[in-house]
Design brief:
CATH topology: D-tyrosyl-trna(Tyr) Deacylase, Chain: A
Structural class: alpha/beta
Number of strands: 8
CATH architecture: 3-Layer(bba) Sandwich
Shape: globular
Mean pLDDT: 96
Number of domains: 1
Largest sheet: 6 strands, mixed
CATH class: Alpha Beta
Distance between the termini: 16 Å
Strand content: 35-45%
Number of helices: 3
Low-confidence stretches: none
CATH superfamily: D-tyrosyl-tRNA(Tyr) deacylase
Order of helices and strands: EEEHEEHEHEE
Amino acid sequence: MISVIQRVSQARVRVGGEVIGEIGTGLLVLLCAERGDSDAQADKLLAKILKLRIFSDPAGKMNLSLQDVAGGLLVVSQFTLAADVSGGNRPSFTAAAAPDDGRRLYDYFVAQARLAHPVVQTGQFAADMQVQLVNDGPVTIPLRIEPLSP
């Protein structure tokens, strides 16, 4: 699974001009399932995101997690993170999970996030979304969880 995590002071996602997900201080997670990804990878990625120490402590050092600051989590599906442009200028998305698998893994990730964290908002899978954010820092971190060995 691939994700891009952005520490935000606020973020929202709109579909058709309507806000469908919104948080204040927290993390915007752009999430992409790739072919062969599993629930175990989603679990590992979520655990990493929730414990990632990228919020400032009273001394100004990045030492606190999302859970420590009781921030919001806004999860937005983004299959374009799997883009491959090595063959030219038009991206190929063959590494992205098939739509049914991608939706299942996205829904699974969101459900697990809601069990583990009190403030979880989402985008809408496969929708044309407009995401607005104020990146705090800026802090932007790509995370990839490789397929687990059998």
